[in-house]
Amino acid sequence: MRLKTPYEDPNILVIEKPSGILAHPDKTSKEKTILGWAVKKYPKAELVHRLDKDTSGVMIIAKNSKAHEFLKKQFMDRTIKKIYHAIVSGDVRNDRGVINKPIGRSPRDFRRWLAGRGARGELREAITEYKVLKRFTDAKGNKFTYVEVRPKTGRTHQIRVHMKFINHPVVCDSLYNPEGVCPKGIKRLALHAMSIEFKDLKGKTIKIESPLPKEFKKVVE
């Protein structure tokens, strides 16, 4: 596995995760993972956060336990700033919005999470801000919206769940939008981690950006 590493210092590594690769091994999969790749290079490496398998973009890896605790605290304190870009189904009415809806388990599918009515188990606070970048229609009349998304919390599948909650799920999402139409040229979950901003162990602010995937560019530009 070859990964681009747009930032590295003695304690922290930032990689560009491709779509289709697990960040962390699960109980059943024997696929190659980001963590497995990192540990081969840095035996004490730990993941600070995760991206879903089919999400691409910037991801932080701690090279040692000291860096892991330092970065984990920033995530817990919500001082790390993350920006995602996504293509969602339909014409999002408002140019900007905030989705403040707790997330719990889906009662129908153990793989899914749910915001709003019907969510089960512990409901955890989840806040997502979004801004419309572009609205467009394909040759068949299907409407889509290109959005910038800033999650203020870090719940599992948060962006995917919240966008579905407002009836504009991310396109090509087999779990939350299985019957939705994909724009021509998009064959993967249309969610990309564009940038992440954090402090290194010396207190310096670091912001790393990842270019928009080529298939996204062709659709939205």
Task: Give keywords.
alpha+beta; 4 helices; three-stranded antiparallel beta sheet; single chain; ten-stranded mixed beta sheet; Pseudouridine synthase
What does this entry look like structurally?
The protein is an alpha+beta fold. It has one domain (4-220): Pseudouridine synthase (2-Layer Sandwich). Helices cover 16% and strands 36% of the residues. The protein contains 4 helices and 13 strands. The protein has helices at 34-41, 65-76, 158-165, 214-220, and strands at 4-8, 12-17, 46-47, 56-62, 81-89, 96-100, 103-105, 113-115, 120-124, 127-137, 143-151, 191-199, 205-209. The mean pLDDT is 95.
Topology readout:
Layout: E1 4-8, E2 12-17, H1 34-41, E3 46-47, E4 56-62, H2 65-76, E5 81-89, E6 96-100, E7 103-105, E8 113-115, E9 120-124, E10 127-137, E11 143-151, H3 158-165, E12 191-199, E13 205-209, H4 214-220
Parallel strand pairs: 4-12
Antiparallel strand pairs: 1-2, 2-4, 3-4, 5-11, 5-12, 6-10, 7-8, 7-9, 10-11, 12-13
CATH topology: Pseudouridine synthase
| Secondary structure tally, helices | 4
Distance between the termini: 30 Å
Going by CATH, the homologous superfamily would be Pseudouridine synthase
CATH hierarchy, class:
Alpha Beta
Give the DSSP E fraction (strand runs of 2 or more residues).
Answer: 35-45%
Helix content: 10-25%
Shape-level CATH architecture: 2-Layer Sandwich
Number of domains: 1
